[in-house]
Write a structure and sequence with these properties.
This is Peptidase C-terminal archaeal/bacterial domain-containing protein. Among the domains are: 98 residues, Jelly Rolls (Sandwich); 109 residues, Jelly Rolls (Sandwich); 112 residues, Jelly Rolls (Sandwich). It has two helices and 35 strands. Strands 2-3-8-5-6 form a five-stranded antiparallel β-sheet, with no helix packed on it. A five-stranded mixed β-sheet has the order 10-12-17-14-15, with no helix packed on it. The N terminus is likely disordered.
Length: 515
């Protein structure tokens, strides 16, 4: 497990945002009350089969479920309808309700995926990295188009595209404690968390079992992922470029576990030897399972805990019920460890994370919940491996008035909560996914706009009534943006609230101060 990057470079302005300081930062002059500070925004991929990559002509125009194909983005390709970037359109026939996983990888460019429906409208688009992934549930029957292109919209080169229909569990070969067996990674399956080429092996375990899983292979750059009975990640190995890898951990519950034996390098397939042993039994510490508004409860991070779905650090999952627009505060304190706090929704999507916004090395999250449902606070440590006792407090400040998932207007002297999602349009400066928020103003009005989020590096654009850009900002503060402007004319302005990458989604706060 590799700890997430440190927050040490964050500025004092981000500290204010995280500690509930939007009012002090952006609206203090307006005399408004407190606000929730910086507000945030993985879910596990279902297991399914993929075919071995098959060379195809440079212009790849169709793909079917279960296929992995190769193609080339070249200067003669079309432009995707969402970003107007050079991209190859690949068609696929789908049915309403189909759950699919799409993945593109390229050595030539930073890949981007856009999927449009039979009506030509956007169905979804990927986040941006060298291995772009996207999971969707198709809304209607018909022919869909997967647009494979680059992040900058102009790069060309070869790519690999995989399409899987998810939802059906891949059968894994059963093994037991005391087993030493061999197997082969063929490229037919990928693991449900990281998308690495892997083969599933299943075994029964009990809460407190101390286990050792060891893989040796001269063919693979070996990888091990242990998934629990509930589908959560129990443990995962790092890529250390050797021919061995191991997991030594404590099982958190009774049930059937799945070991994914795979490779970090999809070009290196072949045979492996797997050893699975029970090395002991562990009683564990005091487990905390639930918390409610107004409570402070004690728990213990120990070797029997699982790994959180964001940083994959050892952490204790504590659930609570919340409603959309609840303005909450979570405090994780400990005298034993340097804490780290992760908050996720029912789908496992990150709502907020924090290292040390509390006193000393303690963690604090202040945020507004995006939806009704059961949330999970993962009480963990900065290192991802330390153990020890902690206290977790949950408070509700109230409900944010007038906030909806789609923020469409804001008035000077106020703040509100919005949500950047895949259905939002693109901003006119970077052509990135952003939420358009209308702000009505008059000529010579002075305004200051502040955007806060705990999930992505924010980006702000202010556009005038005539469509001209009045200002934009991607602040050096890691996750906060602000811009100050004197409005040139009367009319309706548009504040585009988005991310620096142009593809991130999640909850944010927007505050407008009159100057």
């Amino acid at each position: 497990m590799t700890p997430a990057d440190s927050d040490e470079g964050s500025t004092s302005r981000r500290r204010l945002l995280q500690a509930g300081g939007i009012a002090a930062l952006a609206l203090g002059a307006a005399g408004l009350g407190g606000s929730p500070g910086s507000i945030p925004g993985g879910s596990n991929t279902s297991e399914a089969e993929t075919a071995t990559p098959t060379p195809v002509p440079a212009d790849q125009r169709a793909i079917e479920y279960g296929e992995t194909v190769q193609g080339t983005v070249d200067a003669g390709d079309e432009r995707d309808p969402e970003h107007d970037g050079l991209a190859e359109p690949v068609s696929v026939a789908g049915s309403a309700g189909d759950r699919i996983a799409v993945e593109a990888a390229s050595q030539a460019f930073d890949a981007r995926l856009v999927v449009t429906g039979p009506d030509g409208k956007l169905v979804g688009q990927s986040a941006t990295d060298e291995r772009a992934r996207l999971e969707l549930r198709l809304p209607t029957d018909g022919e869909y188009t997967i647009w494979v292109g680059s992040r900058d919209g102009s790069a060309t080169g070869e790519y690999t595209l995989s399409l899987r229909q998810t939802g059906e569990r891949v059968e894994g070969e059963a093994i037991g404690y005391g087993t030493r067996t061999t197997g082969t990674v063929t490229g037919q399956h990928t693991d449900p968390v990281f998308g690495n080429v892997a083969t599933p092996r299943d075994f029964d375990g009990s809460e407190g079992d101390e286990i050792l899983a060891l893989v040796v292979s001269d063919d693979l750059n070996p990888f091990l992922l242990l998934v629990g009975p509930d589908g959560s990640t129990v443990d995962v190995t790092e890529n250390d470029d050797t021919n061995t890898t191991r997991i030594e951990t404590v099982l958190p519950a009774d049930g059937e576990y799945r070991l994914w034996v795979g490779t970090h390098d999809s070009a290196r397939l072949g045979d492996y030897e797997l050893t699975l042993e029970q090395t002991g039994s562990y009683a564990g510490g005091e487990n905390l399972h639930t918390i409610a508004y107004g409570q402070t409860r004690e728990g213990e991070i120990d070797r029997s805990d699982r790994r959180d779905p964001v940083r994959y650090g050892v952490a204790e999952p504590v659930t609570f019920e919340g409603n959309r627009n609840d303005w909450i505060r979570l405090d994780l304190t400990s005298e034993a460890v340097d804490t780290y706090l992760v908050l996720v929704d029912e789908q496992g999507t990150a709502v907020a994370t924090d290292d040390d916004s509390g006193a000393g090395t303690n963690s604090r999250i202040e945020t507004v919940l995006p939806d009704d449902g059961v949330y999970t606070a993962w009480a963990g440590t900065y290192s991802g491996d330390d153990t020890g006792a902690y206290e977790l407090s949950l408070a509700k400040h109230g409900a944010v008035p007038g906030s909806t998932r789609d923020l469409r207007s804001i008035e000077p002297g106020t703040w509100a909560v919005g949500y950047v999602d895949a259905d939002d349009p693109s901003d006119p400066v970077r052509d990135g996914l952003a939420e358009p928020v209308t702000l009505t103003g008059k000529a010579d009005d002075g305004v200051r706009v502040v955007m806060g989020t705990d999930v992505f590096d924010s980006f702000l654009v202010l556009v005038g009534p005539d469509g001209s850009v009045v200002g934009s900002d991607d602040s050096p503060a890691a996750e906060a943006s602000e811009l100050t402007a004197t409005l040139p004319s009367d009319g309706a302005y548009t504040v585009w609230a988005g991310s620096y990458t142009g593809s991130a989604t999640g909850v944010y706060t927007l505050a407008v101060e009159e100057r």
